[in-house]
Amino acid sequence: MLKIVFGENEKALYGPVWFQYNYEITWFHDELVQKMIESVDKSRYIDGEYIESEVLGPISPLNLSGGLKTLISIYENPELVFDATSCGGNCAKWLIEMGKDKDITINLKYIMRFRDHQPFEIFIVNENRYVRTNEEYVDLAIKYI
Amino acid sequence: METKRLRYEFDIKRNITVILGDSATGKTTMVELLSAYGRFGENGGIKLESDVPCVVFAATGEKWQSFFVDVEDSIVFIDEDHPFVFGEEFARYACSCSHYFVIITRRPLFNLPYSIDEVYGIKTTGRYHFPEKVYHEFYHIYDNALPNTVNNKYTFLLEDSGSGLDFYRNAFGDSICRSAGGNSGIAKVLSELDTEVVVIADGAAFGAYMDGLLSVAENKTNVILYLPESFEWLILKSGIIMGENLDRILAHPEEYIDSKEYFSWERYFTSLLMHITENDPVRRYSKVKLLPFYSTGKNREAIIAAMPEPIRRLYTKD
Q1: Which residues contact residue B99 at a Cβ distance below 8 angstroms, ignoring those fewer than 6 apart?
Q2: Which tens digits make up the pLDDT trace of B24-37?
Q3: B307-318: pLDDT as tens digits
Q4: From the CA of A102, how many Å to the nearest CA of chain B?
Q5: Beta-sheet strands, E only, within chain B
Q6: Location of each CATH 3.40.50 domain in chain B
Q7: What pLDDT does A108 receive?
């Protein structure tokens, strides 16, 4: 289940920096992580800490985008709350996808678009309620953002 | 700014530019390159051509003011996750200094009156990265053809509560025009309306509110969003007022507007219109109350004619 806390949340972790100092090589062996690397960063995981980027050439995990670093951190550490404001709209489908397998809680300070990923089921922590349509989601999001 | 693998090209027109959009478009890489250039210059393999100095903000959040002590008349790039940019203190500083700011953030900056025209994503073609506008002046979200004239199902939802509201009430009917009481109320009021709606707000200061408004509008049908620079800009554009260099000013406002004097272009166009008309009691413009010169007859029609076609179609002559 994807759970969202809208608005200010001082305890939410900042993924792009948290990832730098906490990632583990084994995370990249996961099929979903490799799919996210291809989808979000247009890059390909090769082996060890070697990733091939379309634009930058050979890169290390430290050179992945801030959004992808946050996505991977969320997926590999579902017990932690990350600020997914550093994730752009192209991360939305992966958050929905992760929420199908795991309970993850994210903080959002902008209205991430989930419109193209309906049907979904998201739990809005601020309101203690589920939303299942984009209309319900946006109605609650604009109360807090 | 250019390296062997990457090239970024931007025109910075106003004092606040916001960069947002998808992940992995090169926003942080751009800031990292600028930062490396600041430290190593061309010795770092980065070329930079700019009319004014470009600097990257680098300081701890609580002491952000100290960074600006030695910075003058520069374009200051601020990467995401510097919470001070959302505060009132920074807004006051930004409104009174001579810098231009490029701020990378998806979170809206509600304390800063930035334009919908200066919110960009970064588009990439090979090694080339260039800005792409995220928002537009006009949206028409519909499922059926709009009626040819205003019917009683229509609501005009306006941010304005002064002269702008007077104008639209005169032109489209008192009962269907409603003020949202400012930018922050528009998305919420729109979400509660079950009529067809025309939303009109000043684009010059609506950047922070645009995402919320669009998110709500996308869930509706038969919604028109019209975000001209400002009502005063619309009057100047309509041709009913003559002024020195006016055509040139309207085509290239960035060449005439001093950001230190006018933080938002909306304020500049208001000041310009008031200045041009100040000695003429028939045309004297005020933001509070609109004179009949603007709200009646041929002049009213000229202002309507400056609007996009779907809104013009909703207007009926007296």
Answers
A1: B15, B68, B71, B73, B74, B75, B76
A2: 999 989 999 999 99
A3: 999 899 888 876
A4: 23
A5: 7-8, 16-19, 54-56, 75-78, 100-104, 119-125, 128-133, 138-141, 154-158, 177-179, 196-200, 223-226
A6: 7-133
A7: 98
Cα(B179)–Cα(B166) distance, integer angstroms: 10
d(CA A8, CA B218): 25
Which candidate in B3, B6, B20, B23 is best for mutational testing of the A interface (most A CBs within 10 A)? Answer: B23
For residue A9, the chain B residue with the least C-alpha distance is B83
d(CA B258, CA B272): 13
A31 phi and psi angles, rounded to 5 deg: -60, -40
Tokens 């006009």 correspond to what residue?
B138
Structure-block tokens of residue B22: 């998808």
CA A29 to chain B, closest CA, distance in angstroms equals 21
What's the 3-state SS for B11-56? CCCCCEEEECCCCCCCHHHHHHHHHHHHHHHHHHCCECCCCCCEEE
> Which of chain B's residues have a Cβ under 8 Å away from the Cβ of A42?
24
Residues of chain B contacting A36 with CB distance shorter than 8 Å: none
- Please return the burial class of B224, using the count of CB atoms within 10 Å of its CB with bins 0-12, 13-18 and 19+: buried
pLDDT digits (tens, 9 = 90+) for A66-120: 999 999 999 999 999 999 999 999 999 999 999 999 999 999 999 999 999 999 9
Q: What is the pLDDT of residue B148?
A: 53
Class of the CATH-defined domain B7-133: alpha beta
Interchain CB contact of B207 with A (< 8 Å)? no
**Nearest-CA residue of chain A relative to B7?**
A55
Does A134 sit within 8 Å of B24, measured CB to CB? Answer: no
Whether residues A66 and B23 touch (CB distance < 8 A) is answered with yes
Interface check for B123 against chain A (CB to CB < 8 A): the answer is: no
Distance, in Å, from the CA atom of A107 to the CA atom of A5, rounded to the nearest integer, reads 5
Residue of A nearest to B187 (CA): A142
